[in-house]
Amino acid sequence: MTLEIPHSDYYRFAQKFSVEDQAMLAQLRTFLNDRVAPRVNDLWAKEEFPYDLVQPLADMGLFGLPFKDSKHYHGDAFFRGWVSFEIAKVDASLATFLGVQAELSTGSIALCGSSEQVREWIPRLTDGSTIASCGITEPGSGSDTARGMQTTAKREGDSWVLNGQKRWIGNATWADICVIWARDVEDNQVKGFIVPTDTPGFTATKIVNKQSLRIVQNADIVLDNVRVSDDLKLANGNSFADLSRVLKGTRTQNGWFAAGVQAGAFELALDYAREREQFGKPIASYQMIQDLLVKSLGNLTASLSMMARLAELTNAGERVDEQAALAKAYTSSRARETVSWCRELFGGNGIDLGYGIARFFGDAEAVHTYEGTREMNTLIVGRDITGIGAFQ
Ligand SMILES: Cc1cc2nc3c(=O)[nH]c(=O)nc-3n(C[C@H](O)[C@H](O)[C@H](O)COP(=O)(O)OP(=O)(O)OC[C@H]3O[C@@H](n4cnc5c(N)ncnc54)[C@H](O)[C@@H]3O)c2cc1C
Which of 167, 182, 237, 292 is most buried as measured by Cβ atoms within 10 A of its Cβ? Predict the structure, then answer.
């Protein structure tokens, strides 16, 4: 089976995939079109997560793609990124769920766990039987977590006691575990812990009335003398530098989300422009409407081109943090522009959720903010090219 190439893939990137990979992407597209697209606006309106879709996504092997220890490992970063792109094209919330489950949470354990921890946790996280979340951000520290993280970890004999608060933690209302990053009171270093969410003292409260990624279940977390045994401390998660190794992957994935959001908005806008008539003709026949569409396609294609090169660097083992930061900052800024042009093309219907475009418009905001805002990622690149840190 070969994959149909839509206008949103204008440079025909998907043509590069093997027949087997194209077949898997075609299966994923069918799943997204049949099981996700028809419900997504309703779920967004109700702030509900489609829990019934988790196991089918896991059964397609999607949770295990990035991990060498998973039977679903896929060695091509471009393919892994394209999977995120396809999901975000239909629903950025579902893509975010997958990002939190796989890249951020399982990624923390895969990159910072001991070989025993990897052996114990990766199989159950990748087969979908364990759902994960990851707590880094706090009410008082988002952009400056490296310096400002207040949640503490105190070693007491064979266990650790965690105290503090986390904010915005995706999946945390229903996850089985939360990877908590906390500051060791002994050496002041940020360290990672696998916390089962039924541990006494752990509470997660859903954040309601979000206007972006409403399907993702984000939580405020309180850790009140949460005690975990030492074997739940990530053996190699002992500093902010260790956490940064995880964030390099998640920032890259967010670039793919930003491209996906643009593709979803563009496809909706193109269909609408062909169907909607004003002054007796489809609005697609007007030059200014074509300008909105082509500008959007240009942004989207530039974003995909950037992500394709980043994937090549990843495959070669040459990708550095700053390259991931530039991709995140650039593609998420383009996403904001693109969804705004596409929404504009819908006129009044552009703010009616039933037409779908308003959802992309809202979702682009959180994609622009999480995993480091545009400003933070810009400062990371700025420090690299000037040699001068301008964070404060
Ligand atoms: C939907 C959603 C899901 C999320 N999921 C998770 C999750 O699963 N786990 C998790 O740990 N976190 C998660 N986050 C948190 C996210 O990573 C933070 O929101 C983000 O890092 C920004 O932090 P903040 O919101 O505290 O903003 P702040 O850090 O308060 O920033 C506010 C503004 O100030 C700017 N700013 C700050 N410092 C500077 C500076 N030095 N120079 C210039 N400008 C500056 C920022 O760019 C921003 O525009 C999520 C957030 C959202 C919205």
Answer: 182
Residues 194 and 282 in one domain: no
Q: Give the model confidence (pLDDT) of 129-174 as tens digits.
A: 999 999 999 999 999 998 999 999 999 999 999 999 999 999 999 9
Rounded to the nearest 10°, the torsion over CA 88, 90, 93, 94 is -90
- Residue 56 is part of which domain span? 13-126
- Rounded CA-CA distance 280/131 in Å is 53
Strand duo 281-282 + 277-278: pairing:
antiparallel
Same domain membership, residue 99 and residue 64 = yes
Q: Tell me how far the alpha carbon of residue 373 lies from the centroid of ligand 1, in angstroms.
A: 6
Domain at 119, CATH number: 1.10.540.10
Residues 110 and 223 in one domain: no
CATH of the domain at 283: 1.20.140.10
In testing the pocket of ligand 1, which one of 137, 197, 368 has its CB within 8 Å of the most ligand atoms?
A: 137
Q: Is 134 in the pocket of ligand 1 (CB under 6 A)?
A: yes
Asked whether 136 lines ligand 1 (CB < 6 A), one says yes
Tens of pLDDT, residue by residue over 236-279, are 999 999 999 999 889 999 999 999 999 999 999 999 999 999 99
Mutate which of 94, 134, 143, 166 for ligand 1 pocket (most atoms within 8 A of beta carbon): 143
Number of domains within the chain: 3
How many whole angstroms separate alpha carbon 296 and alpha carbon 343? 11
Q: Give residue 249's pLDDT.
A: 87
Q: Which atom of ligand 1 is nearest to the CA of 133?
A: 8
* Minimum CA distance residue for ligand 1 atom 25: 142
pTM: 0.97
Count the Cβ atoms, other than its own, within 10 Å of residue 392: 6
Q: Are residues 296 and 329 in the same domain?
A: yes
* Same domain as 51, residue 104: yes
